[in-house]
Amino acid sequence: MDIKEVAEIATAAGEILLRNGAEAYRVEETIKKICNSYGYEGECISNSTGIFISVITPDGHMVTSVKRINQRDVDLYRIERINSFSRDLINNPLSYEEAKKVLKDIYNAPNFSLGVRIFAASMTAFVYTLFFNGTVLDALVSAIISIGIYYVLDKLSKAGMFQFLLYYLSGLIIGAVSLGLQLLIPQINMDNVITGAIIVLLPGVAFTNGIKDILYGDYVSGSAKLSEAILIIVAMGVGIATALSLLLKWI
Amino acid sequence: MIIKIILAFFGSIFPAILFNIDRRKIFLAGLCGAIGWAIYQLLFYFTQSPIIASFFGAIAIGIYSESLARIIKTPAFGFLIPGIFPLVPGYKAYTALRHIVENNLSAALDKGILTLAVAGSIGFGIMFSTAIFKMIFSGKRVKRI
Question: Threonine/serine exporter-like N-terminal domain spans which residues (chain A) (predicted)?
């Protein structure tokens, strides 16, 4: 296969990985594997906002490709598919068109539908409210709040809203709604409702992958992910604190 | 206590669905959370320290997901991420925040440091098991090439 085509395939695979929250070492290893399986040497640097790839022929020719990644999500299924794609390439190098088609398939792989995801989000809140010693009533309220939050977050993040503001607003809504409901229905314990509802928003993936990146020596990528996690936690905390301190004083 | 382990099982399954996990691995991901929480509870019972209990819970999750990753050839963090959800100190973090809002800063500092310590011990637990697996398996990989 042409060196430019190899660079294109490798870039596309790396982009899917990075966009869906893979660790830096996984992106670099996958790209090297893809280049090797077509008989070229690959060199790659990945941090959490972009990838730089050089494909090198045995006689020293070089094609370089840079890809900037703006949006990051978490999608375990796509990472797994790319992982097995790059493993299969070693034994069975696909032609350019075939590889392109497989990558497109992975890119357009099915997600769980919005309904299922909203159900999962509400059940997460329900389970964790019970888990932190809440009553069933608390859990129900928390589930209902997180249905709303998840729906709004899904729509707003597609509209491309600023991340800090997004999480600040979610925190604000969670705090205000739980406090309001506690005033309406005195049996509800606001603290339990809030702890259940914020679990869905916690950046567990950014946190663990940041730690793993640092462990593997990718300090740039790791500290970027950790600071993303801290930003989300702080934004959410400030949102809840705003709601509570304003409303508690006012009432 | 059995109820909490069952809740931890479901508490790992539902976040995993949010992260679009492969449908065949949903059960295994839930098992990861249940095992992690069972170890946490066992150690909490003996030591009464959430920090040590979280550390060993995270090690158990790390060992489970890294070994499963090698058995069925899939990235480890598909199990790691859902598995740590029950251990995440969400309640402690919220209590710290609540104390800040109530202007009770010394209590907030107390809870805040505990939260950081628990989060750090989860991180170190995962690091520990991943590093050991990497050490064992990287030696093999060099020979194979």
Answer: 9-246
Q: Which residues of A touch B126 (CB under 8 A)?
A: 208, 211-212
Pairing of strands A41-47, A50-56: antiparallel
pTM value surpassing 0.90: no
Query: Looking at the structure, do residues A157 and A212 belong to the same domain, yes or no?
Result: yes
Question: Quick one: average pLDDT of B44-67?
Answer: 93
Interface membership of B17 toward A (CB under 8 Å): yes
Could you say which of A66, A82, A108 is where a domain stops?
Answer: A108
Rounded to whole angstroms, the Cα distance separating A170 from A176 reads 10
- DSSP structure class, residue A111: P
Instruction: Name which of A33, A74, A90, A127 to mutate to probe chain B: the one with the most chain B Cβ atoms within 10 A of its Cβ.
Output: A127
Q: How far is B67 from chain A (nearest CA, A)?
A: 16
Domain co-membership, A37 together with A57: yes
Alpha carbon of B136: minimum distance to chain A alpha carbons (Å)? 15
Helix (H) or strand (E) holding A47, with range, is strand A41-47
Chain A CB contacts of B100 below 8 Å: 241
Tokens 């809440």 found at = A134
Minimum-distance CB partner of B15 among A84, A124, A208: A124
A80, B22: Cβ pair inside 8 Å?
Answer: yes
Q: Does the distance separating the beta carbons of A208 and B84 come in below 8 Å?
A: yes
* Per-residue pLDDT tens over the stretch A13-67: 999 999 888 888 889 989 998 998 888 888 999 888 889 999 998 888 889 999 9
Dump pLDDT digits (tens) for A164-213.
Answer: 888 999 999 999 999 888 888 888 888 889 988 888 888 877 887 887 78
User: A185 and A135, same structural domain?
Assistant: yes
Domain boundary among A108, A139, A174: A108
Which residue range(s) make up the domain with A43? Answer: 3-108
A22 lies in the same domain as A55: yes
- Residue B109 token pair: 């500092």
Residue B25's closest chain A neighbor by CA? A77
Dihedral pair phi/psi, residue A16, rounded to 5°: -60, -45
Asked if residue A156 and residue A32 are part of one domain, the reply reads no
A99 in the same domain as A126? no
Which pair of tokens denotes residue A172?
């604000």
Same domain, A138 and A95: no
